[in-house]
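Need a sequence for this fold. Nothing fancy.
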């Protein structure tokens, strides 16, 4: 059988973003889809820690302080929508997942001040959050370091990533090709060159994460890569049980350390990238560091000495990217008619990648979308659009 050449949409990248774009395009009636996928099982998605949560990984004040409350609310709402959309998919598809609370633990006076302000602002905007100063009974265990907890309610979930990826692949019918090498506009479409030849499509979605700039050099300086890692741990005393439900997502030290409860006595903890040279910024390769793995256990044990943990398995060191202005990059690519991009989720790419795929599908289908225009790449262009160019 000959390989088709003409497609409605070509998608580069077989991680959560690309698969979600294919899934949602198909739901909107597009049937001729092709997906370029390099090292499918080595995607960032496949190695993520497997949790999602509402709102943003950074606290609300991190957005409201530089950008104002209205913009912070708009972004927070979008992230909440992303969380709800993925949870809905997990539920409908019967993908194993566990729901818990989203907790931010505060261990310094500066964090306490930040949390109290964030909770006040979240409340004023009608968003869920509460603040509790620590008392010995806060969670049934005492901590010598904990000053208080910001609780954003039951807005966190641990998910089986192999099951999620398997289901998304099963739910999409696409013609697959290997690595996409280049593309060029043909006026009324896009021609993509790959190792086995060329294909033509009406639109191209670039969902290849850190490699996006290889094909879209105008984004090269805007996408700042960083390296981080997570590891598996278990309670040292296995007769004990963690006081938080599996699915609970936590962070402390301004989200430099983060993790998820995965079972009664097991958890995944990530972060500590400040121990890497230049805090992992501009890392060219991912690496898994034993010293960071040990540091994360020590940091936990200092916070929760009654719940001491030890490494119980491995984890992964992976690279992610923060756009230079610390907002995700989702939408039509400036200067390139018919090309759309999605990347830069700053540590919450499972829910944002899933929703980005949906939003790009909606833009292509000219359907209403919840994507704020603020997230479009156009904000990074330094020159006005050429006359007649799509904006
Ligand atoms: C340590 C760590 C843990 C994390 N844990 C979580 C977590 O628990 N929850 C969460 O929400 N987020 C987490 N993240 C972030 C999240 O993993 C990413 O944001 C997300 O997986 C990115 O998905 P993606 O589909 O955009 O990219 P990817 O999953 O990387 O997919 C892109 C794919 O494109 C392929 N590709 C590249 N170039 C080409 C080409 N030219 N042709 C064809 N294919 C190409 C790549 O090989 C890759 O398979 C974590 C990040 C780090 C650093």
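Here you go.
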């Amino acid at each position: 059988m000959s390989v088709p050449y003409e497609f409605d949409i070509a998608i580069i990248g077989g991680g959560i973003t690309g698969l979600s774009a294919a899934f949602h395009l198909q739901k909107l009636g597009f049937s001729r889809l092709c997906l370029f996928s390099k090292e499918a099982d080595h995607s960032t998605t496949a190695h993520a820690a497997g949790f999602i949560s509402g709102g943003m990984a950074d606290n609300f004040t991190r957005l409201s302080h530089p950008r104002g409350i209205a913009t912070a609310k708009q972004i927070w709402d979008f992230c909440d929508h992303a969380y709800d959309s993925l949870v809905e998919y997990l539920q409908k598809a019967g993908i194993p997942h566990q729901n818990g609370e989203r907790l931010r633990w505060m261990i310094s006076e500066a964090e306490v001040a930040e949390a109290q302000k964030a909770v006040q602002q979240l409340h004023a905007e009608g968003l869920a959050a509460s603040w509790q100063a620590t008392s010995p009974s806060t969670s049934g265990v005492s901590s010598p370091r904990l000053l208080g907890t910001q609780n954003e309610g039951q807005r966190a979930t641990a998910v089986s990533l192999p099951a999620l990826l398997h289901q998304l692949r099963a739910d999409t019918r696409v013609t697959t090709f290997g690595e996409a090498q280049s593309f060029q506009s043909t006026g009324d479409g896009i021609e993509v060159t790959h190792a086995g030849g060329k294909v033509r499509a009406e639109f191209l979605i670039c969902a290849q994460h850190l490699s996006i700039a290889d094909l879209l050099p105008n984004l090269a300086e805007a996408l700042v890569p960083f390296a981080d890692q997570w590891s598996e741990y278990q309670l040292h005393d296995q007769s004990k049980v963690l006081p938080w439900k599996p699915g609970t997502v936590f962070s402390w030290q301004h989200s430099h350390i983060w993790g998820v409860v995965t079972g009664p006595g097991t958890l995944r903890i990530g972060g500590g990238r400040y121990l890497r040279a230049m805090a992992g910024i501009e890392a060219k390769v991912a690496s898994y560091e034993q010293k960071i793995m040990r540091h994360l256990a020590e940091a936990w044990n200092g916070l929760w000495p009654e719940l001491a943990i030890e490494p119980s398995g491995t984890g992964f060191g992976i690279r992610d990217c923060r756009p230079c202005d610390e907002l995700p990059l989702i939408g039509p690519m400036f200067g390139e008619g018919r090309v759309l991009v999605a990347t830069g989720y700053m540590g919450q790419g499972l829910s944002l990648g899933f929703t980005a795929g949906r939003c790009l599908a909606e833009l292509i289908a000219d359907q209403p979308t919840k994507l704020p225009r603020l997230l479009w790449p156009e904000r990074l262009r330094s020159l006005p659009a050429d006359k007649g160019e799509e904006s």
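For context: The first helix runs from residue 16 to 27.
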